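Morning!

This is the sequence you dropped in the shared folder:
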Amino acid sequence: MSTVVLNLPVELIERVCDFLKFNDLETISKACDKTMSFLQDQFYWKRRCEIDFKYTKTDVISNWKSQYIFLYGNTCIHCLEVTTNDNYFFGTTVCRLCERIFDRYATICKSDAIRLYRVKAEDLENLRYFMRRNSHNRRYPMKIFLKNDVSILAVQTVCSIASEKRKTRVIEHILRHESSTDISDLLKNLLRV
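The structure's back. Tokens below.
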């Protein structure tokens, strides 16, 4: 940190730090004794919990920095709700509601991918997936794929179909089940060609 910044009053340095991310604060705290001392202040971390996470509970908390770290690692990146749900595909903390709202996180099981997108099982093996407990048959877990990955695979499959009549039927079938506007637009353009 430059000496000009260090000559500022602590209150101004704190205000500047309000705009920094947690990782940057950790780096700044190692810069000098002055920054380390105010970044150990419990009132600063309590205020950061209120600012960043709208955390207004009146719990008796002895270490607000630890509370901030807990909230920082367990907060949905979209709605800032506290959650323990980590998205497998993206490695980010996203609550279940936001996973359902945003198309980016939409998933599909193997059988639905084959039925709705007309892709081959062997082609699906090349996509990223995770195993989930099967509620219908506990002996065989389900493979869960990102719906966007399956859509892209379907477009690639459609492009390789030689028969125009069959290509049109497959595109129309996929469009009935596709929610992503990017993929839908791409498929509609393929119909026009």
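Headline: Strands lie at 107-109, 129-132, 142-146.

More detail when I'm at my desk.
O.
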